[in-house]
Write a structure and sequence with these properties.
Helix content: 25-40%
Shape: globular
Number of strands: 2
Structural class: mainly alpha
Number of helices: 2
Largest sheet: 2 strands, antiparallel
Order of helices and strands: HEEH
């Protein structure tokens, strides 16, 4: 996926309240431990 195509996805997730940007270039989930849940739910995706 191209980096330029991620901007709209990022904006939608921020609007939905699922992520936020605590600092320039950083993203964080608004729900505690959601990142661990996603890794368990989608095991073929490893960050």
């Amino acid at each position: 996926m191209k980096v330029t195509s991620l901007g709209p996805v990022r904006a939608k997730l921020i609007r939905k309240g699922m992520i936020y940007s605590p600092a320039h270039g950083d993203l964080a989930f608004t729900v505690p431990l959601f990142d661990e849940f996603m890794i368990r739910a989608i095991p073929e995706f490893k960050p």
